[in-house]
Design brief:
alpha/beta; seven-stranded antiparallel sheet; 12 helices; 14 strands; 37% helix; 25% strand
């Protein structure tokens, strides 16, 4: 057994809470530092390059092996903390190993933060460099959140959390993804980075948009970040034909009926997961006619907001009829924007016929009451119930 491994096993016989591996021993290493934190029943390893951070979750045995592999080869210093002691291992350039143990201050012992007293943990943590967040203006070069962009920072993390929840349940090892109406595509980059570099899922992702300059800029940025599985194409959501069968379809802020075409394509392909943030739901407001229930149409502001909610309720029900388990979630706090709804749909091939038909019946009843012909219902060409 090597001297370093022996020291590591002694250290980890204590209840270690935090570790840092630092001081690179050579100039050609991939990483400059490892930060490691105990997360109840596993350790989260954050591996830093000059511009990015990569995450990996391991158990204690795997962590000991990892530390032993890099100490003395890529790094020369290891520091760790339990509630009672601080441990260190230092390795000289000649390979001599020095270890120490120092008693912690009893008044302020280091502890694992519980779910009740810890601060909010974000997927893209402040202080951990990520070039795309700097380019977005969310992070400073020192990886601090720009104060004026804090709401945007929370929104980004919230979106990734919603995607992560669905991906974990699906237990994906590879994903084909289409992002309809990707625009400047910063969220596309972050989705790709999270799934590929943090979750270690093999990702093939296409962003689609109508603006050629935007597509060219996005392809250049993907090359700059080293995102080999992410590309951008010029095209219209309506009638787009993919080169692969998508597992996930994303549509963020596609205007008015463009969201319907994105949902229609996703349903037609049988995408396993759909994430849609609708925008500018004008269609039903122009059709709205409720002779027997005109209260909701009398006042312009009420009518507009009611039709927005009705539009997305109909979309969600049509997804339910199409064999998807569908949720409508708050994407952003309402105080920041009224356009704060995200539709999340996950394919359920075992969905009962009774539930599906009830969802469609509710759509038909609403359309009859308010005189509506929604685009998604027309595209799907579902039969009368």
């Amino acid at each position: 057994m090597s001297e370093i491994l022996e020291e590591l096993q002694k250290i980890f016989s204590d209840n270690i809470i935090k570790e840092v591996i630092s001081k690179t021993g050579k100039t050609d290493t991939d990483f400059i530092k490892f930060d490691i934190e105990k997360k109840q029943d596993y350790f989260q390893v954050s591996k830093y390059t000059q511009k990015q951070v990569f995450h990996e979750n391991v158990n204690s045995d795997e962590l000991i092996i990892m530390c032993n592999d890099v100490l003395g080869r890529d790094f020369l210093q290891f520091n760790s903390w339990s509630e009672s002691y601080e441990y260190s291992i230092k390795i000289s350039k000649k390979g001599k190993v020095f270890s120490s143990r120092i008693k912690q201050n009893k008044k302020q012992p280091l502890k694992i933060q519980s779910a009740h007293n810890r601060k909010k943990s974000y997927i893209f943590e402040e202080g951990k460099p990520l070039e795309v967040l700097v380019d977005m203006g969310i992070f400073t070069k020192e990886a601090k959140v720009v104060k004026s962009m804090y709401d945007k920072y929370k929104q980004i993390n919230r979106f990734i959390e919603i995607i992560d929840d669905a991906v974990r349940k699906e237990k994906c090892t590879s994903l084909n993804i289409i992002d309809f109406g990707c625009g400047k595509s910063y969220l596309s980059f972050l989705v790709y980075h999270y799934l590929c570099n943090i979750k270690h899922i093999k990702v093939n992702m296409i962003g689609l948009d109508l603006k050629e300059e935007v597509i060219n800029n996005c392809n250049s940025a993907a090359k700059k970040y080293g995102y080999e599985g992410l590309s951008f194409k010029l095209g219209n959501i309506n009638g787009y034909k993919a080169d692969f069968i998508p597992d996930m379809v994303i549509s963020l802020h596609a205007c008015d009926t463009a969201s319907d075409y994105a949902l229609f394509n996703a349903i037609k392909w049988g995408a396993k997961m759909i994430f849609c943030v609708p925008c500018c739901q004008h269609e039903l407001a122009g059709q709205f006619s409720a002779q027997s229930f005109n209260l909701m149409g009398r006042y312009g502001l009420i009518k507009a907001r009611f039709c927005d909610l009705l539009t997305d309720s109909i979309r969600a029900n049509l997804l339910e009829y199409s064999s998807y388990d569908t949720d409508i979630l708050e994407f952003v706090d309402f105080s920041h924007t009224p356009k704060n709804i995200l539709i999340r749909a996950v394919l359920n091939k075992n969905k009962s016929k009774q539930k599906k038909e009830k969802a469609l019946e509710e759509v038909k009843a609403s359309c009859s009451l308010y005189g509506l012909t929604p685009t998604l219902l027309t595209l799907l060409k579902y039969p009368e119930v």
